[in-house]
Design the sequence.
């Protein structure tokens, strides 16, 4: 049977470098689920990797990525937004939001904008799964 525990919950945009205090040790879980919003769309990422002595576990750098695309072409704009983010494990109960890289590509015009640490991105929950 799988159980889930909310280790952190919030509603504010996180700045790169922000620390998160979890309510339990991440090594009590086989993996983490990060629920987030990107450009107003809700999504989630499961972060899981091998660990010595067990089948699964949480690594020291927790990466995930995502994308969102415009639904329609208007005024020469057809955007695709890509992002990559990661948490760094500070210790067993603390994570640091260490990176957020965001690219907006306008396919209609052949242009792109690269932002480091900027974008419509918010983490709402970190859930431990066992």
Sequence:
């Amino acid at each position: 049977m799988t159980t889930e525990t909310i280790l952190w919950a919030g509603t504010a945009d996180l700045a790169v470098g922000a620390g998160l205090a979890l309510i339990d040790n991440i090594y009590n879980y086989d993996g983490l689920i990060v629920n987030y919003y990107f450009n107003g769309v809700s999504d989630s990422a499961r972060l899981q990797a091998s660990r010595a002595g067990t089948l699964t576990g949480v690594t020291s750098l927790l990466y995930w990525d995502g994308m969102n695309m415009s639904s329609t072409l208007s005024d020469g704009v057809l955007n695709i937004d890509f992002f990559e983010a990661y948490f760094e494990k500070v210790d067993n109960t603390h994570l640091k939001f260490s990176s957020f890289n965001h690219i907006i590509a306008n396919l209609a015009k052949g242009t792109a904008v690269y932002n480091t640490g900027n974008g419509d991105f918010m983490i709402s929950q970190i859930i431990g799964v066992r």
Remarks:
- The chain is about 0% helix and 60% strand.
- The CA atoms of residues 21 and 94 lie 5 Å apart.
- The longest strand covers residues 79-91.
